[in-house]
Amino acid sequence: MPVKKIYRQKGDTIIEVLIAMAIISFILIGAYITINRNILLLDDSQEHSQAVYLLSSQIESLRQSKINTSINGQCFNGITLFNNTGPVGSNNCILNSSGTEASANQQPNYSITINSTPTIVHLSPSNSYTYYTYQLKTTWTSLLSSSNPTATDQIIMYYSNK
Predict the structure, then answer these.
(1) Residue-range definition of the domain harbouring residue 133
(2) Is 106 domain-assigned?
(3) Is residue 58 part of a domain?
(4) CA nearest 159: which of 137, 126, 129, 127?
(5) Which of 9, 66, 136, 158 is the most buried (most CB within 10 A)?
(6) Is residue 68 situated within a structural domain?
(7) What is the reported pLDDT for 88?
(8) Claim: this prediction has a pTM higher than 0.90
(9) Residue 126, domain member (yes or no)
(10) Where are the beta strands (DSSP E) in 7-149?
């Protein structure tokens, strides 16, 4: 009686290899999307932190200058007030991330607006004083709105010289 040799096939079939490659591809694509989103969120967080820093430095300049008058459409360069650098009638100052005047092509540009509201306090019929509450707002183009390139973020802070 002849003896048949039985050969066992070793290794993976092409289907198994393709399925494994598809699973690895989905995992890698998911990791790529997650990493890109986290980088975008990190950049957005850095821009928010920079905006808070710029507004805080504007408030500190207000405090140091001891101004007790109305300010509308100006911002500080150090402790010196300068007029708006934006389009005519925009009532804002355009600063870069270091807090100096930005050129039109620098990104991100932070548009800073300072508005003041007077409050008169009457101590007696013949004695009163006025203090101001300043609203400082910064606006910049948002990184998170890829579908709308004109979408903006903003932060508003208040300071009173009371």
Answers:
(1) 14-160
(2) yes
(3) yes
(4) 137
(5) 136
(6) yes
(7) 42
(8) no
(9) yes
(10) 74-77, 80-83, 93-95, 110-124, 127-141
Q: What is the pLDDT of residue 125?
A: 85
pLDDT confidence of 106, banded at 50, 70, 90?
low
What local confidence, expressed as pLDDT, does residue 65 receive? Answer: 80
Enter the tokens of residue 80: 């010196």
pLDDT, residue 18, reads 94
For 26-80, write each residue's pLDDT tens digit: 999 999 999 999 998 998 899 899 999 999 988 888 888 877 777 776 777 665 6
**Cα distances (Å, whole numbers) of residue 99 to 58, 89, 96, 110, 147:** 9, 21, 5, 9, 29
Q: How many domains does the chain have?
A: 1
Q: Which long-range contacts (CB under 8 A, 24 or more apart) does 52-59 make?
A: 52/155, 52/157, 53/99, 54/95, 54/97, 54/99, 54/110, 54/112, 54/138, 55/112, 55/136, 55/137, 55/138, 55/155, 55/157, 56/157, 57/99, 58/112, 58/114, 58/136, 59/134, 59/136, 59/157, 59/159
Look at the chain and count its residues: 162
User: Rounded to 5 degrees, what are φ and ψ at 116?
Assistant: -125, 150
